[in-house]
Amino acid sequence: MPELPEVEVVRRGLHEHVAGRTVAAVEVLHPRAIRRHLPGAADFAVRLTGQTLRAARRRGKYLWVDLSGGDAMLAHLGMSGQMLVQPVGAPDEKHLRVRVRFADDGPELRFVDQRTFGGLALAEIVEVDGTPLPRPVAHIARDPMDPAFDADAAVAALRRRRTEVKRALLDQTLVSGVGNIYADEALWRARLHGLRATDKLGRAKAAELLAHAAQVMHEALGEGGTSFDALYVNVNGQSGYFDRSLAVYGREDEPCRRCGTPVRREPFMNRSSYSCPRCQPRPRG
Ligand SMILES: [Zn+2]
């Protein structure tokens, strides 16, 4: 599943390759990819055609492109969604779901998605605290990489929750964009076990944890994002390489990069959590 740095890589790619271009034709090859656009695939194609794509934007892992008509084209990458920019006439990908052709006859935008958990939709823009957002994204909190992220408010919100710290990190209404991989990496850097209670976390420790989350994602972005899924590639079809520098995620039984203790893997919400038993002791009780 793409995490925030990967989504940011895709956003930058879209901004570079499609912003300012006018849509000439839209072809929906699989209706499931448009299921979140409730009026249906034909309505999606008709309303998108003729619009000029403006800036590509992101809130957490949600991605959209502003349209000249005032709405936004919202993209959910789901588990395996890819946005590809391909020359007109290039062979169709096996799992091509939506094709957008442009009036300039330049490279077309393709939404490719093997597992079809992702999709595209048109959405109305609403104002939330002075920021225009597509309506389906209005409840999503800012992510720690967002220049307008309010760290003090996020720390206070985190400490008000009566939950475990890893669950809180993954709660998109509290802090957005932190997925399983970066949550584990941030917890390792902060020397916290994910089962620690948020309401017993000191203010300084909570602030440190969020700063680590932002830092690890900035580092990943610098390296083109993390990729554990061969299906994930960015807008130009290149995979990320950050996985080589992860400290704990995916490193069960390998030595902790700080103390050498073998990394432990524990089940977590149908997935896994990775941590160092020595640097991140499990809370008592
Ligand atoms: Zn360790």
What does this structure look like?
Its cofactor is Zn(2+). It comes from Saccharothrix syringae (Nocardiopsis syringae). This is Formamidopyrimidine-DNA glycosylase. With 285 residues, this protein is an alpha+beta fold. It folds into 2 domains: 134 residues, N-terminal domain of MutM-like DNA repair proteins (Alpha-Beta Barrel); 125 residues, Helicase, Ruva Protein, domain 3, CATH 1.10.8. The chain is built from 6 helices and 12 strands. It has a 4-stranded antiparallel β-sheet, covered by helices on one side. A hairpin with a 2-residue loop joins strand 9 and strand 10. Helix 1 packs across helix 6 and helix 5 crosses helix 6. The longest helix has 20 residues. It binds zinc ion. The site of zinc ion has 7 residues, from loops.
Observed structural traits:
285 residues; alpha+beta; N-terminal domain of MutM-like DNA repair proteins; Helicase, Ruva Protein, domain 3; 2 domains; 6 helices; 23% strand; elongated; binds zinc ion
Shape label = elongated
Strand order of the largest sheet: 1-6-7-5
The ordered string of helix (H) and strand (E) elements is HEHEEEEEEEEEHHHHEE
Secondary-structure arrangement, i.e. CATH architecture of the largest domain: Alpha-Beta Barrel
| Helix coverage percent | 10-25%
The ligands bound in this entry are:
zinc ion
Structural class: alpha+beta
Number of β-strand runs: 12
Radius of gyration, CA atoms, in whole angstroms: 20 Å
**CATH-level-4 superfamily name of the largest domain:** MutM-like, N-terminal
Q: What proportion of the residues form beta strands (DSSP E)?
A: 15-25%
Total discrete domains: 2
Largest sheet: 4 strands, antiparallel
The average pLDDT is 89
Q: What distance separates the N and C termini?
A: 33 Å
Number of helices: 6
Remind me, CATH topology of the largest domain? N-terminal domain of MutM-like DNA repair proteins
CATH class type of the largest domain = Alpha Beta
Low-confidence stretches: 226-241
Cofactor: Zn(2+)
Family: Belongs to the FPG family.
Protein name: Formamidopyrimidine-DNA glycosylase
Keywords: DNA damage, DNA repair, DNA-binding, Glycosidase, Hydrolase, Lyase, Metal-binding, Multifunctional enzyme, Zinc, Zinc-finger
